[in-house]
Backbone:
């Protein structure tokens, strides 16, 4: 890795089974013993099913910039909640709290993604359309 | 089983429904009292309603729909024998679902523990579902009073036959330790090939959306959670020869009054549907009101389950379109997973060599 990261090794139980929820097993692709925090600038957002990918440049403590890719959720519900492909433009400053890929490449799963001011990225949109109280 | 004539298929479906005290209408009846009763519990209460027709005079099922639900396929153990919630219990369930979402949105995803050991540390690496709009309660939910999608007093998938138990156990034993040897070892879903939610239509964990398009003599169903479109001829043709097997089988449809009935056979034995080898599925789509289709299906495979089983759920209209499932375009997960497995192996080999 070219970027110095704060890799906090927290030994957790080995995953008994990949969660049925995911398109692929998270536990197969990402290493829960390698949590990380990334702060950087968005360069591209691939808005694709079944998983979207945020591309970002992260400056390390040595001043070198490394490109990272962060996996996020599928686009459909974000669209229905009011999010568009322009909602995360290149140049956005974001912070990612996630886990690194098991292959130790510059890829991670974005457990949570926040703007530099601390606002959570995809929240604060309009309410779910299925809420019976809102009918 | 694969070549049963349509008439005997329907007869068997009706017998199955009776056996399971299912509320599937008998063959030839458009809206039997049983269907009306099922619709009133599974779908919202409706007065007599005539569905709009397509230009060729068939009931119009077209539109963008969701089968997103909180109802599990199989009935939870604590609810054995209880097939329906009361209206009050349903309201309570809806309230709890909204409260759960508020908590998740404000406090983040509760850590998941799949170890089976109560009180164990979280063992699941994933992102906050609510943040990415993936919490099921952030999308429209098709509510109904059922305690399980599977109908009848048991509400569970019947026991496996002894040969199916042995076959599945052998498969598991053979796969153990080779889960990440190569791409073919990964699931059909991870390989962007096929998923379990398409035929029959079973809600998936997210993206439980579908679009129905009709033309003269055809109905097409596209599910968002994988890229396939099922094209169902309704012109009375026979099934494909038994030698031709397809990922989602060979669907042949016909109309019974206001109900679209789809009979599907010729599934490949590589089918992702719970490991069944000779799957036969009968589905019924009945428009219950402008915003609801009552969806019912019966599944059988005598080599797999000791008896057929049936389920039903409402499909609810949603706004907008479904989103492209460009799975391969962004399937970085496959390469990441395999590289990660090779690295883990190399590290283990290094360690044992020292």
Residues:
């Amino acid at each position: 890795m070219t970027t110095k990261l704060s890799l906090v090794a927290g030994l957790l139980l080995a995953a008994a089974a990949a969660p049925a929820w995911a398109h692929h097993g998270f536990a197969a692709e990402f290493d829960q013993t390698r949590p990380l925090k990334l702060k950087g600038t968005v360069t591209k957002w691939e808005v694709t099913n079944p998983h979207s990918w945020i591309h970002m440049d992260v400056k390390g403590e040595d001043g070198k910039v490394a490109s990272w890719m962060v996996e996020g959720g599928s686009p459909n519900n974000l669209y229905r909640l009011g999010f568009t492909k322009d909602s995360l433009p290149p140049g956005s400053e974001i912070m990612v709290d996630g886990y690194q890929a098991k292959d130790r490449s510059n890829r991670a799963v974005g457990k949570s993604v926040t703007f530099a001011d601390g606002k959570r990225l995809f929240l604060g949109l309009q309410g779910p359309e299925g809420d019976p109280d809102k009918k | 089983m694969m070549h049963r004539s349509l008439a005997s298929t329907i007869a068997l479906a009706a017998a199955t429904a009776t056996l399971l005290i299912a509320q599937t209408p008998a063959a030839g009846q458009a809206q039997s009292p049983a269907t009306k009763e099922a619709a009133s519990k599974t779908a919202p209460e409706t007065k007599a309603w005539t569905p709009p027709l397509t230009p060729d005079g068939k009931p119009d099922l077209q539109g963008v729909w969701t089968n997103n639900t909180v109802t599990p396929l199989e009935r939870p153990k604590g609810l054995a024998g209880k097939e329906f919630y009361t209206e009050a219990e349903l309201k309570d369930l809806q309230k709890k679902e909204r409260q759960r979402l508020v908590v998740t949105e404000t406090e983040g995803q509760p850590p998941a523990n799949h170890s089976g050991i109560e009180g164990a540390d979280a063992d699941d690496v994933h992102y906050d579902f609510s943040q990415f709009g993936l919490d099921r309660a952030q999308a429209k939910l098709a509510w109904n009073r059922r305690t399980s999608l599977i109908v009848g007093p048991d509400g569970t998938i019947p026991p496996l036959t002894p040969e199916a138990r042995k076959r599945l156990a052998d498969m598991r034993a053979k796969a153990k330790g080779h889960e990440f040897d190569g791409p073919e070892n990964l699931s059909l879903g991870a390989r962007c090939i096929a998923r379990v939610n398409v035929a029959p239509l079973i809600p998936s964990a997210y993206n439980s959306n579908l679009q129905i398009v009709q033309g003269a003599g055809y109905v097409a169903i596209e599910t968002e959670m994988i890229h396939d479109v099922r094209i169902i001829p309704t012109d009375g043709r026979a099934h494909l020869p038994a030698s031709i097997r397809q990922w989602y089988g060979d669907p042949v449809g016909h109309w019974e009054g206001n109900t679209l009935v789809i009979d599907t056979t010729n599934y490949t034995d590589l089918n992702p549907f719970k490991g069944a080898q000779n799957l036969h599925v009968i589905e019924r789509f009945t428009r219950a009101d402008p915003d609801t289709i009552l969806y019912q299906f019966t599944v059988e495979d005598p080599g797999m389950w000791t008896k057929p089983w049936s389920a039903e759920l409402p499909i609810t209209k949603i706004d907008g379109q479904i989103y492209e499932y460009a799975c391969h375009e962004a399937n970085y997960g496959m390469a990441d997973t395999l590289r990660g497995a090779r690295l883990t192996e190399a590290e283990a080999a290094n360690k044992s060599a020292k």
Q: What stands out?
A: Strands of chain A lie at 30-46, 52-59, 65-72, 93-101, 107-115.
